[in-house]
């Protein structure tokens, strides 16, 4: 394997990991508040078509990403009202939200199917981009790649260094106690769910405007479920989410390059590698019950209403 090919694979891995980072970090914040939202896949698809449609019709990808974030927030708001206000089951509501998002995105995207869009341009930093090996690996990506790293830093800092992060984690551990001492549990959970929705919407828009700059029905191809698995894989730690996203991004890219290298392996087997890796990693992680119990928010998925 040549150096150029290796650099191309690593660069592709970074791009493939970016939507997973956005979606998984958003879901991590949601779950640290004690809310389990399984609607990430559907939210990503709605964000993908919203970002693509607005970006294509207006010619502005900035507006496209704002529209995608707003679409993600609206999807998350539906989930929040149903689960936090009306006390519906979080698992069933999240699955229903995914089914709704899949259908809604397919309906809205009919007139946009197959149309190309000018994707996000790669930044070119003078001098730094021309450094051999390091230049292509560090300084030739689009702005969302760098934004994903910035999001990780912000989430890590917020959860570990701020009063708001401490409150969020306290709500995730024991909402009843947090409410008893006067903290606004419902507002904290609403904010966490809406933040997760915005991140999922942006992740979806990245798929349709950067990773594969066109709209195709079912574009997310299960990445929302991988993002959910990443949160468990990371045991609710932002740094591990980042590492896990690059790991799964690398597996995704590897199966594409393996087909190009002409390996005598069925293409269906190679295509299933990212999802098989997800299952294997989850099985290995979940064998260590102590780690899961120590890091999992104690109230995850459990309903709470201040009037009850």
Helix/strand layout:
Elements: H1 3-32, H2 40-58, H3 61-85, H4 90-108, H5 134-138, H6 143-161, H7 163-173, H8 175-180, H9 185-211, H10 223-233, H11 238-260, H12 267-271, H13 273-286, H14 289-295
Helix pairs in contact: 1-6, 1-9, 1-10, 1-11, 2-3, 2-4, 2-9, 2-10, 3-4, 3-9, 6-7, 10-11, 10-13, 11-13
Pfam families: BPD_transp_2 (PF02653)
GO molecular function, one term: transmembrane transporter activity
Organism: Solimonas marina
Would you mind describing this structure in some detail?
By secondary structure, this protein is mainly alpha-helical. The protein has one domain: Orthogonal Bundle (ABC transporter involved in vitamin B12 uptake, BtuC). 72% of the residues lie in helices and 0% in strands. It contains 14 helices and no strands. The chain has helices spanning 3-32, 40-58, 61-85, 90-108, 134-138, 143-161, 163-173, 175-180, 185-211, 223-233, 238-260, 267-271, 273-286, 289-295. Helix 1 (3-32) packs parallel to helix 6 and helix 10 (223-233) crosses helix 11 (238-260). The longest helix has 30 residues, at 3-32. The radius of gyration is 20 Å and the shape is globular. 42% of the residues are buried. The model has no long low-confidence stretch (mean pLDDT 88). The chain crosses the membrane at residues 6-26, 38-57, 63-84, 91-113, 133-159, 190-208, 214-234, 241-257, 269-286. It comes from Solimonas marina.
């Amino acid at each position: 394997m040549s150096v150029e090919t290796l650099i191309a694979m690593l660069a592709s891995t970074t791009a493939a990991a970016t939507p997973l980072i956005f979606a998984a970090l958003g879901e991590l914040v949601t779950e640290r508040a004690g809310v389990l939202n399984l609607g990430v896949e559907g939210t990503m698809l709605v964000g993908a078509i919203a970002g693509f449609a607005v970006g294509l019709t207006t010619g502005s990808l900035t507006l496209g990403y704002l529209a995608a974030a707003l679409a993600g927030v609206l999807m998350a708001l539906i989930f929040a009202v149903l689960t936090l206000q009306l006390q519906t089951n979080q698992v069933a509501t999240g699955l229903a939200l995914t089914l709704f998002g899949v259908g809604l995105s397919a309906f809205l995207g009919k007139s946009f199917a197959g149309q190309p869009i000018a994707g996000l341009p790669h930044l070119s930093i003078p001098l730094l981009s021309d450094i051999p090996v390091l230049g292509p690996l560090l300084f030739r990506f689009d702005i969302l790649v760098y934004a994903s790293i910035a999001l990780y830093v912000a989430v890590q800092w917020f959860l570990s260094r701020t009063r708001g992060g401490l409150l969020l984690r306290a709500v995730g551990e024991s909402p009843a106690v947090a409410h008893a001492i006067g903290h606004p549990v419902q507002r904290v959970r609403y904010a966490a769910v809406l933040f997760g929705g915005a991140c999922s919407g942006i992740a979806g828009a990245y798929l349709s405007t950067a990773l594969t700059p066109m709209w195709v029905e079912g574009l997310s191809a299960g990445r929302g479920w991988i993002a959910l698995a990443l949160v468990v894989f990371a045991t609710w730690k932002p740094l591990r989410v980042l590492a896990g996203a690059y790991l799964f991004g690398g597996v995704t890219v590897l199966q594409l390059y393996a087909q190009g290298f002409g390996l005598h392996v069925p293409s269906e087997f190679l295509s299933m590698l990212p999802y098989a890796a997800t299952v294997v990693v989850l099985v290995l992680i979940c064998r260590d019950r102590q780690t899961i119990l120590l890091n999992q928010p104690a109230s995850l998925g459990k309903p709470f209403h201040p009037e009850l």
